[in-house]
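Need the bound structure for DQA, inputs here:
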Amino acid sequence: MDHTKTILVINGPNLNLLGMREPNTYGTKSLDEILEAMRAAADRHGVLLNFFQSNSEGAIIDFLHERTGADGIIINPAAYTHTSIAIRDAIAALGAPAVEVHLSNVHAREEFRRHSLIAPVCIGQIAGFGPHSYILALDAIVAHIARSRAE
Ligand code: DQA
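Answer from helper R.:
Posting the output first, comments after.
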């Protein structure tokens, strides 16, 4: 029998401050509120979520190393999007399909946010829909997993 799929949901630096951090850019919902909405969506999809937030690059990499059985990854690498070859390599090493998520439309902001070191090892990127970006990412990864299973 098919095992229940587990999706890692990883949030990088400063995202623990959501709700009070630059609300004009990132909105007023806390990370817990966003994750609660994701949990409800995951229940509807029949998948399990494993949440992790860290402000430290090494902790994110260690978390990925310890989750070799994961079926998918949703990651908002925050500022590490634009700097971290190490997180990119850890995602590639795990080999599970990954979706990169951003609350803001990084392509409509400062020049340095337009470049992602993570996107090339992801199946796609979702940016600009506020907290709903995470729900879209979950829908996308669940559809991707179902499609790969059918092939
Ligand atoms: C962000 C965009 C990044 O450029 C920024 O460093 C963040 C948040 C977003 O979700 O819009 O911390 O990843």
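Comments: The chain has five helices and five strands. The chain has a mean pLDDT of 96.
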